[in-house]
Queue: 3 jobs
Job 1
Amino acid sequence: MSLRYPCQSFEHSVARRNFLGTMAATGAGAIVGGLGAFTQPVLADQLKSDQKRIVIWDMHGGLSQLESWDPKPGTDTGGPFLSIPTSVPGIHISELMPLTAQQMHHLCLVRGVNIEENDHGIARYKMMTGREQIPGANEPRIGAVAARTLMPRDYALPGHIVISPGGGGGRSDDASYLGPRYASVQLGGGKPPENSTLPDSITVESDVARQEIRRRMNERFLRRRRTSIAEAYGHSYEQALQMMRQRDVFDVTKEPATDHERYGTHDLGRNALLARRLLEHGTPVVKVTHSNYDTHHENFNFHIEQLAEVDRAFSCFVEDLAVRGMLDSTLIVVLSEFGRTPRVNNRYGRDHWGKAWSIVMAGCRIPRGVTYGKTNDRGTEVIDGEVDHANLFHTYLAAAGVDTTGTFNIEGREVPIADPASEPIHAILG
Amino acid sequence: MSTPAETLDPKLAHVVSEWKHDRPMNGVRIDPQARYAVGVSEDAVASRFHLSDGTRTVLSGGFQGWGRALAFSSEGEFVVTGSTDGQITWWETAAESPEPVRIIAAHKGWVRSMDNSVDGSLIATGGNDNVVRVWNADSGEAVYELTGHEGHIYSVLFHPGGQWLLSGDLKGVIRQWDLTNGTEMRTFDAKKLHTYNAGQRVDYGGVRSLAVSPDGKLLAAGGLFEASNPFAGVNKPLVLLFDWDSQEVKQEHVTDGIERGVVWRLEWLSDGSLMGVSSGSEGVLLFWKPNAPGDFHRLTLPNQARDMDLHPDGLHVAVAHHDTSVRIIRLAAKTATTPVD
């Protein structure tokens, strides 16, 4: 299977190569080392100067590939929507995404995803960890792994942010053995982190004084009992202080009103704009969640609603990153836990379908304006370029410059960054 | 198929005919001359079934996507289909092989609902662009563009008096329009038929069907409520019965025991009862009296139902089913010629 370049140009047959892609990666070193996967100091410095970022658009519940990236109009499985041409001749997507269609020259559609799983929880684990779920095991999610491998050692703010429609506050446990420094901080409702302002009862002077006392006590403790856990504990305090000092970084209201209007005056529009703001301020890993697509009933009505929001926000997001020159350093991934059945059920719904569906990537080493993989005419199976969750996990990281054959050193134990039995999609990365 | 009107008895309703297309049906209408039942389905064709024997003729080439709605011009000379590509297409109803005779790009997004005026001179369409449009049924000329809805238009209905048009949307708003000048007169509050699910962050429900009683005193609005899980269709069917003058809800027809039910269409019968068709775990025809909340009878259908239309004789109903069938239901005692039990 090769990439499909509709223009058939020679230039497109040579994938862009990021210098980091040739890097050798070895053990991760100390657990707090943000560049642990890159052990050559010169290259690590280069990375800092060209800091890679990953932003994941998580279409929670199972976005229908047939209503988005791989439409099959006019077939018994195609549903009621038409397909439309895009900015790349020969590539068509659903009519529900007309604005995104105009950004297709930045995107790579991966249309042959098969994870052989239709259960939400198991499929989500696969897609987020790149591995099979084994009882008792808890692998770090893609965001944490990306933060661990991409975040500069001296990065002061939380390097892994999840922007969700609601909820929020605190860190999750998605970093597992990588440690809390790489776990996501959730910004619910697009709001800055909770409790990130100084209480009225504490003056700046008294806060400085109490932090100084804490640091002295911490240093004294570390002189005798330095452990990774103790370091992470101290780091969390310093990170919180930085977050309070740079609270504006998380404040989407600082973005121009015109951009709020462009992105859409809904949760996803605001959250996408916040993601852009965070990336521009150097946040290495951002995930934007959009809920929900688990449309067993009236799938088409709900996809009209949901994708209208996605189309506007996502198209602006891609365009802005491209215009600002950020696509070279930012990997965009649009994923879900699975797709939806080609069969339309008797309630106008589509059910869970992990066998033949699509994800999207853009930026970094990902070639632009192409498709990879193919499903049959009715979308019921992959007929070319089949990939799974493990291939995708490798590819995301490799596209951002991580050598996914490397390992993390976790308390003296070498743990593979990605499933060693799998590999990136070389046809995409070149 | 004519039977004396006095024999109407919904409690004796039964299936008399079953005709197949090859895709699930979305909608069905019977032409004013009672020659054909025309259905639209999950494909880009319409199916014309001859009511005398079920002979099927496929109407193709007029639209893309799915057919969603139907109406007829004066005396049923033309059948007009509305489709998910936003088009309305005129077909000569009785032609041996009907071809599209007029295609109009009517809406941006789906055409969800259509109706023809009682005299057949006008056709109304409601679409996903939140606009209601009124057309000259014979010429296709645009008569009115009615704006103001803030959600997809799920239902349109000409008032039997001829002077008003009603339209219902996803958000549970029913608007009454003056057909003499195209202005909005008033709104009915049917928000009980709308749900915004904060967890799933979706709007759901809507005014799926409208019917004005023959005496013009009652307006029925059908749909669903108590939608605890829209994505799984966990809800119950509901009909709100408005007093036409006061606009107050006089009755809520709640129908127990129908899981995932949605009232797709309503029709008033000659005995003053209201008939609705609902899908859910199974298809069902429901019958209510205006003065009682619960249904006084229900006919369980062989498959999920999505639409229905009352025959001009008032005794037969055409029902569109997911299993690709159009079934004819007789609302009276069986006859010697009943072909299907």
Job 2
Amino acid sequence: MSEQITIEKSLRDWWSKVKAGQVGALPAILGLVVLCLVFGSMSSVFLTPGNFANLLTQAAAVTVIAMGLIFVLLLGEIDLSAGYAAGVCGAILVIMITEMDYAWYIAFPVSILGGVVLGAFIGYLVAQLKIPSFVVTLATFLAFQGLLLLLVGEGGTIRIEDPVILAVENKNLSVSASWIFFFVTAGAYVLSGLWKFSKRRRAGLVDSLFKFWVIKTIGLIVIGVAATSALTVERSNNPELVSLRGIPYVVPVILVLLVGATFVLTRTSYGLHIYAVGGNAEAARRAGINVKMVRITAFMICSGFAAVAGMIFVSRANSISPTTGGSSTLLYAVGAAVIGGTSLFGGKGKVSDAILGGLVVAVIDNGMALLGYPAGIKFMVTGAVLLISATIDAVSRRGASAG
Amino acid sequence: MASPLLSLRKINKSFGPVHVLKNVDFDAYAGKVTALVGDNGAGKSTLIKCIAGIYTPETGEFIFEGNKVTIAGPRDATALGIEIVYQDLALCDNLDIVHNMFLGREEKSGITLNESTMESMAKKTLDGLSVRTVKSIRQKVASLSGGQRQTVAIARAVLWNSKVVILDEPTAALGVAQTEQVLKLVRQLADNGLAVIVISHNLNDVFQVADNIAAMYLGTMAAQVEKNSVTQNDVVRLITTGSSDAIAGAKK
């Protein structure tokens, strides 16, 4: 039966989904390609392996915050304090390791637990007391900033020397480990996809999107091979002194988070309930879903991800400072989620949006810095891109409800 | 007539000083469509909310399949096989048809959703209702027309082998063709053996689809009659005056 379904039909189904307001990742992918072409043609450094690796480590922390934020955005809520939650959790991590001599494998889980507690506090205020999340997290934004200042001490920074934490942003997998990582990831992706489709076929269900999945998978594998090849090239200026090859450790860290969060959102009933509450909270309540619990746990997950981002910040800067997770961090993270295709109105979005959007934000940041533009222009361009994404979101929503 | 599947006897319900339901009797039969009519404020909504377990009446009895039962909450009603389709449908636009039908009662294998089982069951239910207007049951509810959305809401109600389905104003927001389609579906439900209760203001719809008509007037059951024994004018008189004197088939 599936033999009769052509690629054209697959593409047509997908195009009708696009037109129905489910534009998905298309604008972000196009934007990313255009940005890379523009910066690549204008700067000789932009498309080098060294800069590519740099880009990934630059994008990491904001991307992880955005991944957590997506749980909250799916409910139609927002967490403005996720950036400083990352800062506070990073401070917990550094203080435990540097000043209290705990091992990283104790300090890191404790910092995540700290994030979860912060999230539970926000979630309780939003879900139980029904205070708008905008107001609650505006307050916690200030409060967490103060907490971070108290923890770190005014004007001071605390250094960290733990080799494991520092390795996340500063060390790479070996060349062979990089390729093993690629093959394991690609193999798992292909097998899980095939397994899903074969299960549906055994149940006698038709799948018009199978051919589309094949095309997408081939595309992803090509990108994966290209990226792994680029990252396994020697990118040190002085290879005899220090060799710089392989996939940065932060990439597998993000991939684990991506797979875990995507599994929760798409394969479990909890994930379905998050989408349901974001789509129509009253309908979810009548269907017997514990809406309050869904709200509180979403904020807990968001701040838990922020704690991981805090660790990445710390690893990148080798220290914690009172401004870690501050300034434009949170706005970049919200921007990344929205640019990737997650709706600010709730009910629509995927965890992978954060990766795409995070890359777009990092590419603008990185590319414009390479071209020597001042920070002012950089912020304005990022703002413009965010505005375009929000416009696409709003317009496609209108298209969907008119249909 | 066969004995009713669901009988309510002498139901009383007050909200503070307002006596909303006064000794109301009501019967619903398997395989029949019972229309519940009445003017605004006559007590129709309160009555069905009592059946659905959202309100608990102060006094009165429920008899379900010949046994006396108590309905203390929505879960009790669901456990008996009583489902209600609200006027606003309570669907999530951003979810597809299958997920909407199973929302809150998902089929799982281990901790993961069992998508293929849910899809097969949803398909079977829609086929059982002779629904052929839906292109794909994996499309988002946002892309459906009003009639199709009503269909999904009804299909969700019958998915669980329910025995009684209550529809609140199912055609109120629909155009002519879609009204026709939904009324056909309502008829199909009864033909499949369910007891169907329909609240409606539209007497044309009522006369097209109903077997029995229960008319409420100011918190009382003015009369419950067979459709064939009355005219539209009789029903209008029941709704507006509560008087059943002129009607032969009425049992007061």
Job 3
Amino acid sequence: MENTKKFRREPLTDTQLLMTITIGIFFAMYLIAMAVLKGGFLRPQQIFDMLNDNAPLIITSCGLTIVMIAGGIDISVGAVTSLVVMSCVLYLNRGGNIFVSVLLALGIGLAFGLVQGYLISYLEIQPFIVTLAGMFFARGLTTILSVNPQKAEHEGFAKLRDVKIEISWLGYVAKNGNRIPARIELGVVIALACVLIIFLLLKFHKLGRGFYAIGGNQQSALMLGINVKRTRFITYIISGLLSGIAGYVFMMHTGAGNATNAAGMEMNAIASSIIGGTLLTGGVGNVVGTLFGTLTLTTINKIVVSSGLKDPWWQKITTGGMLCFFILLQSIVLSRRSKKKQS
Amino acid sequence: MKNKLKQIFKGGLGQLTIPLIAIALLVIFNLIRDPSFFSIELMHNNDGNIVLAGNLISIINGASELAVLAMGMTLVTAACGGQDISVGAMAAIAGSTFVKVLKASPSITGITVVIAFFAACVVAMLFASFNGVLVAIFKIQPMIATLILFTCGRSIAYWINGGATPTVESPIINAIGGFIPGIPVPTPVLIVIAVAIIFALAFRFTSIELFTQSVGINGSAARLNGINSTFIKLLSFIILGACVAVAGSIAVGRLGLINHETILLDIEMDAILAVAIGGNSLGGGKFKISGSIIGAYVIQMLTITLYAMKVSSTDVKAYKAIVIIILVVIGSPVIKAKFQKLMNRIKDNKRKVSVKGAE
């Protein structure tokens, strides 16, 4: 009796189903790329490169996933990231302290989160407009700080930037016979830590369950005794804070501030969340799915580049096509399930 | 008469209160700052035509594409409860088609321009109906559905151009973006007026306005009342497609070339903003096209005012954001309710005082 109970599987929830599809497609795509394109795809370094390049995107996507689960939207993340990079680089170049620069990054992110969250949750202004204004403000402020690209020339920071985890047995032998170890940047560790923390928060903490509740049905959440306004406020604070962290990681990766940094990152973050199975209507989503969503998006780009489509437009057109595929797939899967439920 | 005035003050101008207040504030600000901001003069342009010039004209002229897009965006917003973020990318596609057809013809005459415009219209409507099908039939949220074209639209435009930024030189194209000889008013302004008249006629003689509103307020209730809500949503996207083609053609006419990366950059955000400033709910339902048009001019006036104050074009965004936040905070329901409470308390106090005085 107890045995059957243990092995009876509960049907997958919407979140888990969409996430499973994404993870399945990611592995299928990567395996096909390994079999057909070979080259770099056979090396583990390829995956680490993808992570190294996209650590900031993963972090911002996590924040966006939380906001989207709670039924909102935050399109200011890319601009805030850019602002953080620029202000931290300028601060460090004036002989600043590394510890203070981290605080500065977190502070800027937090400030944006606080103001936007307050306007959206307590003054009930539409989130799209508020975060659009936030985006304009952050982008404008970045160009006011400096129109020209700024390179970080700070000794302590250079040391921090060069901290890399090297795993020699995962490396490969280069053409000249040297063995090159696999390299992972510090930012990736931070990004994965963020994913883990948010995963635990969403899965096991009361606050995380509250996000799902207010995104699923605001009225019911209110009747359950959840403080809807405060919970929504917190989602934006987390998103802002994560943009700040993403900005610092971005700076550790590029080492320079530029007004066009992280351009279009907000839309990439939204796309990765969607591919990962988060619905913009709220209530459905998972941060692990988001991680794989980001990786899927990057893999598509890598495949397009290495499969020899040289014309510059193909990369974006294939990304758009894949996005279309995922969105349609989700829509069909969800509508079939809701029909099954009804019958 | 007095009663009527009182009513207007009491109920405000409804939806149009915020955009009109915004315009009034901007006008007052400019009057205090520099009254010559409003001067309009007749002058000869490079072609020797007599044309109107001045800040006001450049505001009305510069907002043309935005106003046209805002009109279409209002319909989509009202019917679907979401926004189309691909209008800028679609305008690039439409503009590229426009230029491609013009380039293909041996000489540019009035007829070829009309044909090219219709080709651009058809292409833009096709792409818009792709969005529309995703939204109306597959029930995907507009912002997600249009994210696809937002991502790849400019690349498709690049592909149409074959990897170049082609130029077209013709007096007719210059006239579309500039001035028709003999008429001192900029042509884009005339085009906006024409589009607005078409919208007004369509609303006057068909029930599309009512249908759109009912679909936006409650789609399934509208369907039970015999309105084909799928078709209405699709139609709103197709109308937006036509607006996009108009805006793209104007933008090509202004410069005489198509640059897929920079043409109407970030206009989708401005168009959504125009709809919001116009007092329309971004969640769908009731709408007023006139509000969105005023919203478009508010945005352009703000931009020109900032330029006149010697703010550099890259920094304008930051100041714009502050003004937007102030506007939406004034218009937010919570602040309105608080203001109402305050007014009531003041009134009560007055009454108490007068009662005490009588005693």
